[in-house]
Design brief:
- With 327 residues, the chain is α+β, with helices and mostly antiparallel strands.
- The chain folds into three domains: 104 residues, no CATH class; 123 residues, Sandwich (Jelly Rolls); 71 residues, Phage tail protein beta-alpha-beta fold, CATH 3.55.50.30.
- The protein has eight helices and 16 strands.
- The strands form three sheets. Strands 1, 2, 3, 4, 5, 6, 7, 8, 9, 10 and 11 form an eleven-stranded mixed beta sheet that branches. Strands 13-16-15 form a three-stranded mixed beta sheet.
- A hairpin with a 2-residue loop joins strand 6 and strand 7.
- The termini are far apart.
């Protein structure tokens, strides 16, 4: 099979993954059928990211009778692969992928993914599926991953291999499960939906085994680790347009809002010890930073480096129905 045919197939598979219409079993078989396939797929994914970054300069006016799907032209976060398919420009994506493929290092199993304002769906050759959140970084060396930011992992059960993920000081080992892992400057949050994982770290007294329905929080300042029941529906809640919390430190809530919201958000030191329980909405018509400020009777002010949450002036009160109190 020629490289052109492989790249064309990779572009088609990437379009299906992006549109969430992929047959994962068939996709995994394709990835495993030829070592060149996974490399071509990675090249297509990287090429699409580069084309998305250059989208304003590459914009192509569409004729009035072009068959653009309804609403596609105005969708603010459409992917290049979907646009290319709709406008007949898929060849441009394949050409860009060919150029990227020529520049990719020939180190088997090594790859880096970094997201901007939108999430990215990833598929590994072993069938592992990853939803990498906005403003996150994931690197891979063989079966070892390193995460900064947030990602949801769906790992097929394979006793013959163990996937390991480093997040800050901790290492999560897994042979098959579904979980959400967040690393915010070394503060780790892990929520297990199903299966089990092993968590180890140099400052932990012993390795821990977590099961489905459990959650873990690690504070790098004190090396304190807390394990408890997971909040229902917390795994990948950002994919459903919401952020759910139970007694979560306010700086971590602010870090999430900054990742999924409109820009930097920090918490004034005077209120950094406060905790939040509830649900914040994401997406059009919702401003989670404003909603959080109303729910907690705080002020939201603008500074030269983004927004800051601080104690409210005397006389200010709470009042918002944008979030729900915790159960």
């Amino acid at each position: 099979m020629t490289d052109d045919i492989i790249l064309d197939a990779a572009a088609q598979w990437h379009g299906q993954v992006t549109a969430s219409t992929v047959d994962w079993d068939a996709f995994t078989l394709w990835l495993e059928s030829d070592p060149r396939n996974a490399r071509a797929y990675d090249a297509v994914a990287l090429a699409e990211t580069l084309l998305d970054d250059c989208a304003p300069a590459l914009a192509v006016p569409l004729a009035a009778n072009d068959d653009m799907p309804a609403g596609e032209a105005s969708a603010p976060a459409r992917s290049w692969s979907r646009l290319a398919t709709a406008t007949g420009l898929a060849g441009l994506l394949t050409l860009a992928a060919a150029l990227v493929l020529a520049l990719l290092p020939h180190r088997p199993g090594s790859q880096t993914w970094q997201t901007g304002d939108r999430a990215q769906s990833l598929a590994m050759a072993d069938g592992t599926r990853i939803a990498l959140a906005p403003r996150s970084l994931l690197t891979r060396e063989g079966d070892h991953l390193t995460l900064t930011g947030d990602a949801v992992f769906a790992v097929p059960h394979r006793p013959d291999r163990t996937l390991t993920i480093t997040a800050g000081e901790l290492t999560v080992s897994d042979i098959g499960t579904h979980f959400d892992l967040r690393n915010d400057d070394g503060t780790i949050r892990l929520t297990i939906d199903e299966g089990q994982v092993r968590v180890a770290g140099a400052r932990l007294a012993r390795a821990l085994t977590l099961m489905g329905g459990q959650a873990l929080a690690f504070d790098p300042r004190t090396a304190q680790i807390v394990v408890g029941p997971a909040r229902a529906g917390a795994t990948g809640d950002w994919q459903r347009g919401q952020l759910s919390y139970r007694d979560t430190p306010l700086p971590l809530v602010a870090a999430d809002i900054a990742r999924y919201g409109r820009g930097p958000l920090r918490v004034d030191d005077a209120i950094a010890q406060q905790h939040f329980s509830g649900t914040l909405r994401l997406g059009t018509g919702h401003d989670p930073a404003q909603d959080l400020a109303r729910l907690m009777a705080l002020d939201l002010a603008m500074s030269g480096h983004g927004a800051v949450l601080r104690a409210a002036h005397q006389g200010h009160g709470a009042g918002s129905t944008a979030g729900r109190p915790s159960d």
